[in-house]
Design a protein that fits this description.
The chain has three helices and six strands, in the order H-E-E-H-E-E-E-E-H. The N terminus is likely disordered.
């Protein structure tokens, strides 16, 4: 009995790890000198909020500040910062189709002839897929130097507890590769 408990526990941990629900990607300017960046502030993106609430905005902002400060960057609101940060969601309407086949067949064989009817039913389902995007811009040159996204991070958040769990994890995963080495 004990042999079954360990594999079952490992399988459940692997299943939980595989269900992150989002994929992270990033890109950056390879010519930027990231070592000189020490302070940051926010700028407002013209891309808008994309339908997120101010509560979601607070979650993302708090997570971004926490991650950047944990990496040694200081928030600078009085003087010019080294870089500016913005974040915004992108929400897409996604669709998928399911088809159900039911019925009998017909043919020639054991019995001289047999037959039946069949039918198929297709349905189109839609859902909202939400992505968190974080952009970092050099303050002096006003050029984007880094961008990261968690595609699907805002998908399927059914209650505040889900959002409180997923958003900080997604922001941490996005900023894991900032600054590039």
């Amino acid at each position: 009995m004990r042999r079954l408990a360990l594999p079952a526990a490992l399988l459940s941990l692997l299943a939980l790890g595989a269900c992150t629900g989002y994929s992270v990607n990033y890109d950056y300017d390879v010519t930027a000198s990231f070592a000189r960046y020490k302070t940051f502030d926010y700028y407002t993106s013209k891309k808008g909020t994309g339908g997120t609430t101010s509560l979601m905005d607070k979650r993302v902002r708090a997570a971004v500040e926490k991650e950047l400060q944990a990496k040694g960057f200081a928030m600078e609101t009085k003087a010019d910062p080294d870089f500016l940060v913005t974040y915004y969601p992108i929400v897409h309407e996604r669709r998928y189709r399911t088809t159900t086949h039911m019925g009998w067949g017909w043919g020639w064989g054991y019995r001289p002839f047999y037959g039946g009817v069949g039918t198929s039913m297709s349905q189109v389902h839609s859902y909202q897929e939400g992505t968190i995007v974080i952009e970092i811009v050099d303050f002096k040159t006003n050029q984007m130097i880094w961008q990261g996204a968690a595609a699907g991070a805002l998908t399927g958040l059914e209650n505040p507890e889900d959002a409180d769990e997923v958003v900080p994890r997604a922001v941490r995963d996005i900023l894991a590769k900032f600054p590039p080495r």
